[in-house]
Amino acid sequence: GIVSDLGSASATILSSHVMEDVALMAGRIAVLHDGRLLHDGPLDAFVAERGGADGSAELAFLTTIAPVLA
Fold it and tell me: 57: closest CA among 17, 26, 19?
């Protein structure tokens, strides 16, 4: 697709809360909340470290932002 083609030659910034879409398009992810960088790194490592047993990008995202929402 267009985003994946652009990403091979340049940086593409995608802002989304729909983690299924992000997981399909991104190789690297940065999670920002209230102007703070909570995570920056490869998507597969993000999901492996924070995505639980099912390897869910959505669960990884929620696990990352949960401490700042409390």
Answer: 19
Q: What is the pLDDT of residue 40?
A: 93
What would the DSSP string read from start to end of 11-48?
A: ------S-HHHHHHH-SEEEEEETTEEEEEEEHHHHHH
Q: Are 59 and 52 in contact (CB under 8 A)?
A: yes
Tell me what percent of the residues of the chain surpass a pLDDT of 90: 21
Rg (CA), the chain: 12
Three-state DSSP class for residue 50? helix
